[in-house]
Amino acid sequence: MSNINALTQQFSINGEVGFREIPGGLTVVDIRNKAATASIVMQGAHLTDWTPLGGKPVIWLSPDAKFAAGKSIRGGVPVCWPWFGPHESKKEYPAHGYARTVAWDLISVTPSVSGESTRLVFRLCEDDKTRAMWPHACTLEMHYNIGKTLDIDLVTHNQSKQAITIGQALHTYFAVGDLRQVKITGLDACPYLDKVDGFKRKTQAGDITIADEVDRIYLQSIADCLIKDASLKRTIRIAKRGSHSTIVWSPWAEKAKQMGDLGTDGHLHMVCVESANAADDVVQVAANSTCRLQVSYSVEKL
């Protein structure tokens, strides 16, 4: 893991950006500016909190989340890359790729002149193990802009002499007051693959409400998605670019108990709405070119 003293010396900003080590030996970057607070675990460049000033947390982290080297974290914004779901031929490779469970370097920290936003750039650290799974010359960066809105830019630089194909997603867990009182809009009329029903292809009719397990890959999805939360009296807006698929996931009660790290009634307090390139929407990145998956999260009164 990264050296706290070295990171502090190079990147800390008094009162705005600091570093700490948590159980499991992982390093966390804490951000506090005039508009928001946030925390990012350097393993996976994994954001675990974003709370606009005067508001409630928007990103959900399980109270039973486990923090350990090489293990994924339940909650926050896991990065799925360079494939989504199981690897197409190597079933022993980790589901959703390896980006969320390996070390990343912090490349830069830039505060805004107004003090109302903070920009951080992370770069995935490749090693022999990752190169064995992904033998292509490319670099992956995660750009965060922390402020009144949370802006995320996942950037793949293909430095090889041939095209590569990637699947990717920002597997974001959003905090809700009571999922039974939530409506998700923006996906009406989109075709989707229903993973709970044997990957049958269906079409969404109207808003999404959840009262059982949901695991769907929505295709041809480019419009903003809105999480309308009657319990917390707020709407979370998800705007995106470079993505034509959206995953909506809730394990619901029975599966949540089997998972063991979702916390008591955790399934009622989170929902994943993931901006992605998955299934029919994998992306071919041309030689010596760049692919960007960009999202912007904001909060509005309901």
Describe this structure in words.
The protein is 7% helix and 43% strand. By secondary structure, it is mainly β. The chain has a single domain (4-301), classed as Distorted Sandwich (Beta-galactosidase, Chain A, domain 5), CATH 2.70.98.10. The longest helix is centred in the N-terminal third of the chain and has 8 residues, at 4-11. The chain starts with a helix and ends with a strand. 40% of the residues are buried. The model has no long low-confidence stretch (mean pLDDT 96).
CATH topology: Beta-galactosidase, Chain A, domain 5
Q: Tell me the series of helices and strands, N- to C-terminal.
A: HEEEEEEEHEEEEEEEEEEEEHEEE
Mean pLDDT: 96
Tell me what the CATH architecture is: Distorted Sandwich
What is the overall number of helices?
A: 3
Strands, count: 22
Could you list the spans in which at least 5 consecutive residues all have pLDDT below 50?
none
Brief account:
The protein is mainly beta and 302 residues long.
Strand-helix topology:
Layout: H1 4-11, E1 17-22, E2 26-32, E3 36-41, E4 46-52, E5 79-80, E6 104-111, E7 118-124, H2 128-133, E8 138-146, E9 150-158, E10 164-166, E11 168-170, E12 173-175, E13 182-185, E14 191-194, E15 200-203, E16 214-219, E17 225-229, E18 234-241, E19 245-250, H3 252-259, E20 270-277, E21 283-285, E22 289-301
Antiparallel strand pairs: 1-2, 2-3, 3-4, 5-11, 6-7, 7-8, 8-9, 9-22, 10-21, 11-20, 12-20, 13-17, 14-15, 14-16, 16-19, 17-18, 18-22, 19-20
Task: List its traits.
302 residues; mainly beta; Beta-galactosidase, Chain A, domain 5; eight-stranded antiparallel beta sheet; 43% strand; globular
